Amino acid sequence: MTNVLKENGGTGTPLLVLPTGEQQILVACRIRPMTEDEILQGGTIIAHKVAEDNMVVLLDPDEDHDDILRANRSRERKYMFDVVSDARAGQQDVYASTAKILLGSVLEGYNATVFAYGATGAGKTYTMLGTENNPGIMYRTLHDLFVEIKKFEGQREYQVSMSYLEIYNELIRDLLAPSSSFLELREDAKGTIQVAGLSELITKTPEEVMEMLHKGNRARTQEPTKANKTSSRSHAVLQVNIKQRDVTRSHTEQVRFAKLYMIDLAGSERAAQTQNTGRRMMEGAHINRSLLALGNCINALSEKGNTKYVNYRDSKLTRILKDSLGGNSRTVMIAHISPASVHFEESRNTLNYADRAKYIKTKIRRNVIDVSYHIAQYQQIIQDLRSQVQLLRDQKDELEIRLTTTNEARFSRLSDSNTTERLRVEEGLKLKENILQTYRKQIGARRALLEIDSGLMDVIHECTRNESVIEHHESNKENSKKSPEEITVDTIVSENTAQRARAELRVLEQERSKLEKQRKIQLKDFETSKSDARRLLEKVTKKMNTQEQRELLKLLSQNFEYEMKTIELQADIFARDYSIKHKDLQLLRMSQHRSLCDTLIYQQRRLIQEHQILVPIDLEELYQLYSRDIDEGQLIQDLKNHSPRSVTGINGKPSALPFLSQIAEEDLTSASTSVTSFHLPNNVNRRNNHQLSTIISNRTLSDQDLFTHVNNDLGQDSTTNKPMSYSHFNFEQSLKPQLTKGNSLISLSSESVDVPINTNDMTTGGGGGAANRKVHTTSPPNDSSVEPSTFFSNNNVKNKAKLRKQTQDIAARAAQRRANLHHKELMEDIGSAFSNEPTASKENTASAFGLEITGVKPKKTVTINDPVMSRSRPNDFHRTNSFSPEPIFNDPFYSTTNNRATKNHQKKRSISHGSTVNNRSNMPIANVVVPREHF
Ligand SMILES: Nc1ncnc2c1ncn2[C@@H]1O[C@H](COP(=O)(O)OP(=O)(O)OP(=O)(O)O)[C@@H](O)[C@H]1O
Questions:
Q1: Contacts of 523 (CB under 8 A, 6+ apart)
Q2: CB-based contacts of 614: which residues, under 8 Å, 6+ apart?
Q3: Which helix or strand (DSSP H or E) is residue 454 part of?
Q4: Which atom of ligand 1 is nearest to the CA of 230?
Q5: Atom of ligand 1 nearest to the CA of 222
Q6: Atom of ligand 1 nearest to the CA of 231
Q7: Whole-angstrom Cα distance, residue 225 to residue 114?
Q8: Is 280 in the pocket of ligand 1 (CB under 6 A)?
Q9: Where does the UniProt annotation place the signal sequence (predicted)?
């Protein structure tokens, strides 16, 4: 069979790769020769290819040229197509002008379809399948596909598999497993049609393909009809899947997939012409129905602008052809007609359809998946490359030994008279040595460049880090201008750090410019060695004329390429590492900036309150929004999620990022102030430590904070080496050392907090009345069996788990309460608008207004009250302004009710021993107690 192809012109012409994007279907027309039957029937040739033009002229056999009346109403039809072939065109010609055009694209990862269309007996099967001695498109395409694949041997890995099915009477049969039951079509999530259970066989040679095709065709439903002795009564679909990837593993790898459909449709038929009855007629009806569906799709798709709905669902054929007609596929339609006058109507219909199909456009894109390897996998790839390098080295050494022996033998054989040959061999060896040296030089230059780059990256990173430290110090200084008596140890430490950073920066800048100069020189060296190697290679290639020499050269080059690839991979790892570090710093800087903004907002807010300035309602709402973000911990959560610390390494464990451990403690502290400065402006928190902790103790603690603190394994107080006190732990003393050891940034969000554990509340499991459901804890835990000090003990895992569980319970109950409250409020709001309606009807009305009452999302904040403060200063509240009827206590910064609720109910709140009671629900809502004198 392969010989047949060679005789027919083989695979000569190079393959095209067509561009991506919207493309029209390529429509070809094949006019077959007259058959004996047609000649016997007295048929005349009415279909002609016009010279070189891609035009078909179809003459009307009934036209009477002597009819003067109809002289101007000729039924002669002219059609233009992309390709037209007539009786003179051989199988190879038809293949070369149609399917072969697609092959290059298929190998590049584009889907393609070739389908043969036409009336029964028009020559579709001949074109697609052909005969044993003159195979058709299916075989030729696959043959060339394998030839092309062979060309890439050693560079790309291919897997070719095929499946072959027929649609007979709207039933799908697997032609490669004909005894299996009928198959069903399925549509996957992406809308791609799949045939469930279809066998897919991997093929390695064209011979295997041909064997499978024959096997499939033998199983195909074929019956003689009046119109065609070997009429195919089904649509046959050959699907070839091509998957390819590069042999050489790299850090990024492209895997390409392509689907190639080759379809031999059953022929449309007219009952009168085929004279079919019974089963044949039924078959014909099915064939026609599916072809009609195809025709409808073609009509809809060829509409200008293609706005019409395309109904692919009418037949299995159109469902399978969905992508080929309107989706991601380069498609070629080969319309077949008989030239005989007896088939004028069929030919005309076919040509009309083909003419419409010219306007169909498909959207082509390449099916490529970029497989990007995780850094952890790089090591493996490098290892693989190293072993490949070693293997090649061994091969090279072996070849060198063989070559030397051969050369020595040749030298001894060479007589003095044959000096020219001797010189030639000597020169060859010299060239080889030269090329080796150049390669070594190039590798050396690349390695040196990599080292400089890596050093430079480190220096740049260190510069940025120091700049960040200085910047933060400056902004802090600016932010909290202190009187001389306010200068504390912290201030001095910070100043020293900044000075150190400045000194470091100066040295680093010098180092950086030195490295940059070195890099320039090295880069030049590398470029020179590259061009030297290229020149030499060209020279040596010309000189080496024995097979052995060429093989050696090839091995040398491959060896060199692998070495270079290994270095490039290392460079890539460095670059990625640096990029992670850089992002880390960016995060830190953003965090610092946020800290500054928080402080600003806080101070502004304080000014407003102290001077009782009226603020516009929208500003007030913005404050509330801001406060909610802070309290819900959403921003902190985001920070945590994007923190490089959240990058997981092998086995899901956090990856070791040494950079983080290098961050100076002061940097972390500054990052940590992102939230704390909002609660603790510098001029407040420097006054005295007592005040500091008191203020902190009264902040709102969100669920997020709560979980974070519990989960963060706070352990022992590092200064006293004692377990953490239950009622209070201080950020400065407790969290910072943990953080600097590499704990999550989330911990930075909180300082000193009170953990609100009311064991009564917990043990009742939320099942009690309003008293048990109180959010605030006004007394220390009264469960004496639980030693507070053991709660945070590092070793007491049980207690920690218990505490975690209790905390979660509190949060869950608080969330539930809020949900109830929201629900209630919503119902009351709706109630005021529709006060006469019963509750059920209100819910209906709400849903009619797009309000889903039951779906009210519970808020996530738990409000904590300082037990000590609440008891000792019950009446120490004051009003600041009309927007804040209570002091900070009701400050929207700390308040967690939603905007609407806050707005609606602010005026109705009353103060009751440190908790604000919502008039409607009688439930305490979020609040924080802050004694006046602290401001
Ligand atoms: N280009 C051609 N050269 C020579 N013979 C041809 C050519 N095209 C078709 N024939 C012959 O015409 C006859 C009908 O062709 P074929 O079976 O391929 O038609 P078909 O369109 O597939 O019909 P059906 O739809 O009924 O299956 C066959 O005997 C075939 O060998």
A1: 449
A2: 881, 882, 883
A3: helix 419-479
A4: 17
A5: 27
A6: 26
A7: 26
A8: no
A9: none
The verdict on whether residue 10 carries a ligand-binding annotation is no
Number of Cα atoms under 13 Å in the Cβ half of residue 390: 6
- Residue that wins the pLDDT comparison between 382 and 259: 259
CB of 267 closer than 6 angstroms to any ligand 1 atom: yes
pLDDT given for residue 290 in this prediction: 81
Q: Which of the residue ranges 60-64, 184-188, 241-245, 636-640 would you say has the lowest mean pLDDT?
A: 636-640
Please tell me the class of the 2-371 domain: alpha beta
**Selection from 333, 296, 289 nearest residue 315 by Cα:** 289
| 855 marked as binding residue | no
Say if residue 224 is exposed, middle or buried (CB neighbours under 10 Å; 0-12, 13-18, 19+): exposed
User: Phi and psi of 16, rounded to 5°?
Assistant: -95, 145
> What residue ranges do the domains of the chain occupy?
2-371, 378-602
Cα maximum dimension of the chain: 124
**Exposure string over 683-715, b if 16+ CB within 10 A, otherwise e:** ebbbeeeebbbbbbbbbbbbbbbbbbbbebebb
**Which whole number is the average pLDDT over 79-98?**
93
| Average confidence (pLDDT) over 307-311 | 72
Cα separation of 887 and 929, whole Å? Answer: 8
Q: Looking up tokens 């059953």, which residue turns up? A: 266
Q: pLDDT tens across 145-188, in order?
A: 999 888 887 778 888 999 999 988 888 889 998 877 788 888 87
* Residue 34 DSSP SS3: coil
CA dihedral 192, 193, 197, 203 (to 10 degrees): -70
What residues pair up with 116 in beta bridges, in sequence order? 264, 334
Planar angle of CA 869, 870, 871, nearest 5 degrees? 95
Question: Is this structure's pTM higher than 0.80?
Answer: no
- Side chain identity at residue 492, one-letter code: I
Report the half-sphere exposure of 5 (CA within 13 A, side-chain side).
21
Is 488 assigned a ligand-binding role in the annotation?
Answer: no
Closest C-alpha residue for ligand 1 atom 9: 123
Instruction: Check pocket membership of 232 for ligand 1, CB cut-off 6 A.
Output: yes
Q: Which two tokens stand for residue 753?
A: 């907090």
Could you identify the atom of ligand 1 that is nearest to the CA of residue 122? Answer: 21
Which candidate, 348, 171, 148, 304, places its Cα nearest to that of 240? 148
